[in-house]
Amino acid sequence: MAEIKVQNLTKKFGDFTAVDNVSITIADKEFVVLLGPSGCGKTTLLRAIAGLGMADSGVITIGGRDVTYLPPRERNLSMVFQSYAIFPHMKVFDNIAFGLKMHGADQKEIDKRVNEAAELLHIENLLDRFPSNMSGGQRQRVAVARGIAMKSEVLLMDEPLSNLDALLRLEMRAELKRLLAGIDATTIYVTHDQIEALSMGDRIAVMQSGVIQQCAHPTTVYDLPDNHFVGSFIGNPPMNFFHAQVEKHDGKILAKVGDYHITPHQVMAPLLQKYEGENMMMGIRAENMETLDSPADDALKVQVLVVEPLGSQNLLTVRIGDDTVKVSTHPDLKVASNDYVWLRFPADKIRWIDRESQRVIYPS
Amino acid sequence: MPNKRNWVPYLLISPTLIYVLLFFAYPMVRGLLLAIYDDEANLALMQEANLEADLADVIPQSASIEVLGRQGNLVPEEELGENNLLTEIWFRIEAPDVSGGTAEGWASESRIRVREEAEDGTPLMGTVRRRLGSNADPLTSVFAEPNENSEVVGQLEARTEAQIVESITLEVWFLVRGENDGRPVEGWSPSRYIQIFEDEITGRVDRGNAGEFTTKYIEKMMNDRFFWPAIRSTALLLLIIIPTQFVLAVVMALVIQAQLKFNSFILYIFAIPLGVSELAVGILWFAIFTQNGLLNSFLQTVGFIDTPSAWLTADSRNWILVAIWLAEVWRATSIVMVIVVSGLQAISSEVLEAAELFGANLWQRLRYVILPLLRPSLQVALILRTILAFQVFAVVIALSGGDVVTVLANETYRQYFDLRNSNVAAAYAVLILIISMFTAVIYLRAIRTQEEAAAT
Amino acid sequence: MSNENLPQVAPEVLAVHQKMIRRQKRQRGFVYALAIAICLWITVPIFFIFSMAFTTQETVRAYPKGFLPFIPFSTETMRFFLNSEGIIPGLINSILVAIITLVLSTLIAAPAGYAISRYIFPGRNFFRLSILAVRAFPIVVLSIPLAVMFIQLGFFDNIYSLSLMHTALTLPTTVLVLSSVFASVPYELEEAAQVFGCTPTQAFRQVVFPLVLPGIAASAIFTFVMSWNEVFAASILTIQNRTLPAQVLSSLSNSSEAYQFAGGFFMLIPSLIFMFFIRKYLFNMWGQVSK
B241 and B373, same structural domain? Predict the structure, then answer.
């Protein structure tokens, strides 16, 4: 059992608050990805869990044991570092065996575990070599092998793929996913790459400014962002946002964009009552809008600014009011810049955002 | 970095290259030769009395000789000033011959008395000297060349007036006979290499002009009474100085890496000895250890001693060694510290964190990660320090006067400067060079063996 | 945010934490103590000789000297030293030799340093290694044959031959240091300058030169100090025109302690001043040797 529980953790560097009163619980054997832009505090949080930088306040427990102020070696965890942190003066075997040796495992056990780990990562043939003349991909594998050879209940990974080139990263991502599914460790994985996060994690914790903005299953984070930041950070292109005036016509709540009206989903309507007469932000993903090349009653006429053919789809940039919106269309729809198209907004795909709190409003 | 295969880099490095060749490679060869090659060992004897003649034989320096003959020979004007060079002057003259004609040719100054000189001293006219002695030839020969062995072109009577056309200065050559290794040798030699005794028929070879490899300088060095003491003290100092330096240097480096407050100031203090001259350090520690110096003052004030102890006298050799040890540790630890800090800075913090995370405590981190990663730096520092330790010199002079405790560099200086024996000094220098290189090679091999052992 | 809702760290962990903090503080204190001890080890002898150099000759002779030997403060000892025979000419010689050495050494080494840091050419490694090898060369070994050579050339007992010797001594270090100084300026900067219209020479003058100037200055200062300190070659190569250390060394055995102490401190002054300015460059300079 290695449930990780972080409660009200705060870590400051001088005046800068890197992690601000964060709480998160990671279940035993769960794979959680900490995702966020650089400087959001994700690495600081990971290091606090590892014990490489002590928290200023708050509590960290692993498997029910309070480890808040224990040194890393007493936390029974292992880690894969961003720049691999392979010991350059040791052979691959000794690198992988290092943690086991330090914990006093006997030689037989060490041999067995090192060979297992090396086999899993297909680096059996490298065991006798020094890391100095190995490629980045090979070092990466050694670092991962060292991380899993310990068979710790907790495995921490700090942007393990960020130093690889794009192609290798793609390959390694799939392999890591397969590998981590096979070992029974609670894993925390830090990355700034949302594709990695979406494709690998059981849950994604999106961080910004030292705060976890949302922590949920990848599809939830994608479809139902908790706030404006999460929507704008996740997805490529990110979620579109544009402004609309909430008005009541004939007793019905409508959102007005220019002279076009959007009717909110029936479950949303009551929640929008209180915004009557106010400006709201609406969010919708590029692939969720329906694009028509001819006028329709329930569609908004917009002018196309840019057309970007992406192969499987075309990405149109259009203007709605003062906001720029990206729309993905089927490649068969022939449009050029300055053409007009008509957009239809499915009510269940629209997210309504309180402009003051930046939060997305959901029916409870 | 541009991969330009052109002449620019070679042009840029050529001044350095030339300088290094001129001031390292050449002196190196020269120093070696000074130590093992005596370029005045032998005197070359010629078959005829001129430098272009074939070599007849050689005769060792300071061998006794017998003079068989003499003859003048042309000598370049700039060589006339050389030591011991005997000269004679010959005149080209025109004078009425005994046979009634005019004799034109050469006669030695010993046969012509100059009667008239130009204002600048050039002889213009002279008379033939009268020969003394009963059985002397009354006539004076005139030769075709300025050489008594050449053809006689005329005979002059004594007191004949002779027109002096030209005068030249010749170096006297001697035909000598002597022994080389018990074997009789004979040949011509210029006067400058030879010393003739008063009897004018015996003499000795004063100096040689043909070199020979010799071990005599090395023997002289090894038989010097200071040689073995110098070797012993040098080795002893090496053994006690270097380990202390390394321990202290690693401690200093760790202090610098701990990034205390005022770190920059601490670094400044630590670096001061790096720029202090050896001599100043010697004096510094002399001031502490001298009889009315700091140490005695302190001990007496505190009450440990009643009268000042003499630390730096011939009777307290060990204390002199201690003083030299402290002075050298004081002076040369900084450089090791700087190298170690550079090495520490090159270790990535992630590697240290990884070691910590995988369970290594402070000692294990030092033992398994930090020191192994520092090894290249430590090796370089070790080689550098060892080689520099052979050059310790002014500290020793300042603290021991150079007699009670002496080291190899000091003996080199003594041989060159006090005893004016540059060959033996060069022998010492070559010895220092060989020991330095030998040490470096041993280190490198030891390191390689370690690596090979680690590789298996 | 109310404190009651905040989770509490387990008491035993808190105790561990406090113990750890105490230990860290103890360790920190220990490191400070070490730093102070080493600083004292270095500065106490300097302070002592400083106080001896600036007091009366009577105090220098006095015994025991007590804990604060700098009383009374007086320039008498130092004046006595500076007025001794050969000291002022020696000082002038030392400065001249050091300046000629640093100029020669920098002029010869800078192009080589630039070549090593900027070009890859066949023989580059060999050149670098040779420089490294001669850097560690014993000056004692060079001095004797060079002295003999200079005597034979009749080029002897003057500041120029000694400067040539000192340049040989400092050149390898200067080459290595300058190459690391040049390497610290990315070549891209030069390329950028050329793209924006500079000739290679202009690019060097306007972009590289200002950036490397402090490094070159530090290296020059170090060269100056090395030459100023050098005593073996100076003693071997000069008779009448001695440098300061050679002069002090030759009169060491028959001079008073006042003379010796003042001389010792006087020779120490450049290090006290210059090390302050170049301390940050030390690691750049010497980091080179371990690569």
Answer: yes
Residues of C in contact with A54 (CB under 8 A): 17
Q: Which of B214, B242, B259 corresponds to the end of one domain?
A: B214
Rounded CA-CA distance A256/A243 in Å is: 9
Residue numbers of the domain that contains B395: 220-455
CB contacts, 8 Å: A51 with chain B: 357
Residue B12 included in any domain: no
pLDDT in tens, C128-187: 888 877 777 777 888 888 888 888 888 888 899 999 999 988 898 889 888 888 888 888
Q: Classify domain A240-361 by CATH number.
A: 2.40.50.140
Residue of B nearest to A97 (CA): B358
Give yes or no for a contact between B187 and B149, defined as CB atoms under 8 angstroms apart: no
- Same fold for the domain at A4-233 and the one at A240-361? no
pTM of the model: 0.79
Domain boundary among B171, B189, B214: B214
Share of chain A above pLDDT 70, in %: 100
B287 shares its domain with B382: yes
Interface probe for B, chosen from A43, A67, A98 (most Cβ of B below 10 Å), is A98
CATH number for the domain spanning B379: value is 1.10.3720.10
In this structure, what token pair is assigned to residue C186?
């990315």
Strands A31-35 and A186-191: parallel
Whether residue B14 lies inside any domain: the answer is no
Determine which helix (DSSP H) or strand (DSSP E) holds B165, and give its type and residue range.
Answer: strand B161-180
CB of A120 closer than 8 Å to CB of A179: yes
Q: Is the peptide bond before C111 cis (omega within 30 degrees of 0)?
A: no
Closest-CA residue of C relative to A54 is C17
Chains contacting A (3+ CB pairs below 8 angstroms): B, C
According to CATH, the topology of domain C85-290 is: MetI-like fold (1.10.3720)
In tens, the pLDDT along A70-99 reads 888 888 889 999 888 888 888 999 999 998
Note whether residue B158 is domain-resident: yes
Count: domains in chain B: 2
Please give the structure tokens belonging to residue B452: 């090979």
Cβ within 8 Å, pair B350-A85: yes
Closest CA to C93 of C234, C231, C243: C243
- What span, in angstroms and rounded, lies between the C-alpha atoms of A9 and A6? 7
pLDDT-derived band at C1 (thresholds 50, 70, 90) equals very low
Left, alpha or beta for A94 (phi > 0: left; psi -120 to 50: alpha)? alpha
Alpha carbons B43 and A75: distance in angstroms, whole number: 87
Helix (H) or strand (E) holding A79: strand A77-80
Annotation: CATH topology of A4-233 = Rossmann fold (3.40.50)
DSSP per-residue string spanning A333-363: S---TT-EEEEE--GGG-EEE-TTT-BEE--
| Closest in A50, A52, A103 to B359, CB measured | A103
C4 touching chain A per CB within 8 A: no
